[in-house]
Amino acid sequence: MSSVFYERFERHAHGEGLKGHSTHYCPGCGHGLIHKYLGEAIDELGVQDRTVAISPVGCAVFMYYYLDVGNSQAAHGRAPAVAVGHKMANPEAIVVSYQGDGDLAAIGLAEIIQATQLGLPMTFIFVNNAIYGMTGGQLAPTTLMEQRTTTSPTGRNRLMGEPIKMAETIGQLDGPVYVERCALFDNKQRTRAKKAIKKALQLQVEKRGLAFVEILSECPTHLKLTPNEAEQWVKENMVPVFPLGVKKDEETEPWFEMSKPKFDAESVVEVIGSSSEPAHRFGKGFPSHIKEKDVSIKFAGAGGDGAQTIALLTTRTAINEGFDSTHIPSYGPESRGGTSYADVHIATQEVLSPASPEPHILVAFNPPSLEKFGPDVQPGGIVIYDSSVIPNPPELDPSIKMVGVPCAQIASDLGKVMVKNVVALGAMQAATELFPKESFLSTMREALKDQCALLALNEQAFEWGGKAYEEATNGAGA
Amino acid sequence: MASTKTKDRPKPFLFPEFCKACGRCISSCPKHCIAMGTEINPATGYTPVVLDLEVCNGCGLCLSACPEPYGLMATPTEVDFEPLDPEMLFGARKTAAPTPVTIPDERVPLPELEPMILKGNHASAVGALLAGCRHFFGYPITPSTEGAELLARLLPQLDGVFLQAVSEVATVNMMYGCGGAGRRCMTFTSSPGFSLMLEGISYMIGAEIPGVFFNVMRGGPGLGNIGPEQGDIKLACRGLGHGNTHAPVLAPSTPQEMLDLTMVAFDLAFEYRNPVVLVSDGFLGQMTGRVRLPSYMVKPGLPDWAVYGDEMHRGNLHTSILLIEPDLEAHNVHLNEKYDRLTQNEQRAELFRCDDADWVIVACNTPARMAEGAIQVLRDRGIKVGLFRPITLWPFPIDALLPVIERASGLIMVEAGAGQLEDELRLAASHAGIAAMPPIDRLRHFGGVLPQQHEIVEKITALAGE
Question: For a surface tag, which of A164, A463, B196, B324 has the fewest beta carbons within 10 Å of its beta carbon?
Fold first, then answer.
């Protein structure tokens, strides 16, 4: 008698009377045997304290009545996911996921495949009795062809699909190291099953790998057979469909080690990338020449134009200058090729609404963007547009300052059309004097600190944008 | 084994009342020592097997064939062979599971840090790390992915775990396991994914397992779109799976709150042993802003109820099945008491310029920020407008609303959804026994369209002019 069983099954009807020492299983059911072999293996390997057993939904839902280990009862089909959660929470825990055929091979297929493919040292026990027990004898994914159940009253036929062979399915995955199918119908099979369960647990204890043991089991009640007849039925009918034996058995070295998570402030501060160093401020104050307390900007173009990047650079620059700022992107359904516009706010205190439906500044990269958002720009506002793709800008309110800069052309001359957004940013800085040039450049250097090769080009693009603005305005004035 | 003499090997022993007469042992015995009995045991109604051990050589095969833990057993050597209490007969336990003791959480001070510039979803991820979360499980879904992506990068640097599950269904069940082990874990998801998690959340509530769910709500129903919506307030407040379920629902409205409330969520989850839901909209998740860091971070302990997989916690169990009806009723009474405590202690709201407000906007998430912008414009025009912003959507902060509605001429619900926040307000007001509500008007958009500032301005200007 394994001491892994509770002294009294308190959780079974409060442990009163016979239920304090009997299982809830029907006479001849295979679950009791499998529990027993599992309990013995846990005992023999000395891992009772570390074991977490996951009870499934199905007849074994109450496995936790019996095994004196950490117990977690899972939703239908999800025992493998719950088991993974436990193993990740404590890699030293010995986690056993226990499931029947409906649980594992029907509703829980995705979970068992992922969990076994993960390949962590864990133990999976699959009890296949070819029928749903708990719900009253319905068709299981492993019900045999022509087998009668309450939902295949004239026998399983082709329209109900074929029985699924889980040991073979799991055996061909790369995750597990050991997969075997056993049975319980005679002494020899029981000895094998017991050995297989112990081995499956040992591989976990030794941190070698994941093991999956399928056990053909008897359900005399729903097969409507005596326990002895049920043993014969499994032997004669199930074994030909579900051949017994080892499906996979790889030699492995112990490998599984996970470090304990870090909780020291130094590591956390470093990892989240925060700093005690205040950013340098270049500006003299809030750009109130544009608006007293809250400046609203919109950047608009096609996906890939880089509107988001310069919008974010603007937000960062504003926050570095000590103000509150927000950036919200809006993309079309596809990441590239669709519309892409960004709203930025800069506020003295706190940004209230982050949207820019009526911006003070608009940066437009293509004709549709300018046509769509141009009319919403506030009177007295500024519009910067890429004149290399927008030769004929629409007529807007005369109080609006229109600045055409050939961003794409300049970027292309610099050798990389991608930087046209930075050209536009340079032009915007020059046109609006939102913040000093150095302030934007400093943010840009910070953003590109891991891509130094790109920095020079971007700085050049920014400079050229500013110059192009000067030329454009001088030209316009001339 | 070869050296063990036959006479030394223990022979089987059976308490008849623990035999279910399956007969597996009969065919297992090579010496034919066991036969089906003929007498019905009055305690069980079964006819237990009978043993005739004269030729028994103690091979033990019958012991391995008996499915009952207290069925056929090896004869104890040191006990007088009388039918004693099995608890005495089979000796004392090798070890008894100890009484678990909670290891408390610690607050670790942080140095003074400059504000960070973070996207909303990233701010929440940073909040999770500061709250002591080192386990993330999730399934990618737009527009919530950035949070997960950041944690996929940062968690391994802290020797934490990032695991991309096979689905949202697997995700929530991994959280059931990890949270059940007493660890702080979370997920990011969006509406369709949140729907899939609801079953598991019901199980977590039933088993009293904490976990933090961040739902960046998007347009629905069905696949809908990836625009910002507030269509899951109903699910989060009233529909957390089957059964009698509730969880605190927190609604941030700035990147700063994305961080702060994520930290609050973990504290609530563990204080109340319950999942906690954060809801934001896609707009807020994508919004970049200035985020100040707290003065501390959390180093989590380990609660006494954890199923951790060690000696201390061996006696613990997580389950949500209680077959005996009065047991399940008692469990629900216990849950209701928890919900009552949450309702009494955890209501949170922000009141913006409500003191003298004739008109009060009620909104949360991004619509609340649109409303703040509108209030500025309306105040400039001399219309006294305020904002009541529920931060906990459940429990609805009705206590803070009461003084506001006493003086307001009207409430204006501004929602990116079909009135789910309004339903929460009306339900809370009704439960609070408020007889006379001011008139409630509304501005709603759906499908990823947000109520705009100018619409709010127009709506309230029209109302105030009447």
Answer: B324
Residue B73 CA to residue B358 CA, distance in Å, equals: 81
Interchain proximity A78–B135, CB inside 8 Å: no
- Given CB atoms, is B126 within the 8 Å cutoff of chain A? yes
Q: Which residues pair with B288 in a beta bridge?
A: A327, B119
A407 close to A386: Cβ distance less than 8 angstroms: yes
Closest to A70 (Cα-Cα) out of A88, A58, A55, A56: A55
Instruction: Give the B window 298-337 contacts with A, CB below 8 Å.
Output: 299-300, 307-311, 313-321, 324
Q: What is the pLDDT of residues B313-349, one digit of tens each?
A: 999 999 999 999 999 999 999 999 999 999 999 999 9
Q: Based on the domain organization, do A302 and A239 belong to the same domain?
A: no
**Final residue in a domain of this structure, among B345, B365, B389:** B345
Q: What's A49's domain CATH number?
A: 3.40.50.970
Domain membership of residue A306 (yes or no) is yes
- The pTM for the full model equals 0.94
Q: How confident is the model at residue B435 (pLDDT cuts 50, 70, 90)?
A: confident
- A347/A444 same-domain check: yes
Q: Please report, for residues B132, B162, B179, B276, the alpha-carbon distance to residue B186 in angstroms, rounded to integers and kept in the order given.
A: 11, 10, 9, 10
User: Residue A196 is which amino acid?
Assistant: A
Asked if B154 reaches chain A (Cβ–Cβ under 8 Å), the answer is yes
- Using the 8-state DSSP alphabet, how is residue B446 labeled? -
How many cross-chain Cβ pairs, A to B, lie less than 8 Å apart? 340
Q: d(Cα A183, Cα A191) in Å, to the nearest integer? A: 9
Whether residue A224 sits in one domain with residue A361: no
- B289 and A327 within 8 Å at the Cβ level: the answer is yes
Residue of B nearest to A70 (CA): B314
pLDDT per residue over B26-35, tens digit each? 999 999 999 9
Q: Are residues A310 and A226 in the same domain?
A: no
Residues A229 and A361 occupy one common structural domain: no
Which of B163, B168, B174, B262 is the best substitution to test chain A (most A C-beta atoms within 10 A)? B174
Of B43, B171, B175, the CB nearest to A18: B43
Could you please report the per-residue DSSP string of B259-289?
Answer: HHHHHHHHHHHHHHTSEEEEEEEHHHHH-EE
* DSSP state string for B107-151: EEE----PPEEEEHHHHHHHHHHHTT--EEEE---TTSHHHHHHH
Does residue B100 lie in a domain region? no
Within this chain, do residues B58 and B150 fall inside the same structural domain, yes or no? no
User: Would A153 be classed as within a structural domain?
Assistant: yes
Whether residues B253 and B332 share a domain: the answer is: yes
- Regarding whether B146 and B253 lie in a shared domain, the answer is yes
Query: Sign of dihedral through CA atoms B174, B177, B178, B183?
Result: positive
**B294, B406: one domain:** no
Task: With residue A343 as reference, give the H or E element that holds it.
Answer: strand A339-347
State ipTM.
Answer: 0.95
Radius of gyration of chain B (CA): 30
Domain count, chain B: 3
Question: CB-side exposure of B439: number of CA atoms within 13 Å?
Answer: 9
**Amino acid, single-letter form, for residue B60:** G
β-pair partners for A298: A343, A362
Residue A258: inside a domain, yes or no?
A: no
Q: Verify whether the Cβ–Cβ distance B170 to A68 is below 8 Å.
A: no
**Which residue from A2, A267, A357 is facing B452, i.e. has the nearest CB?**
A357
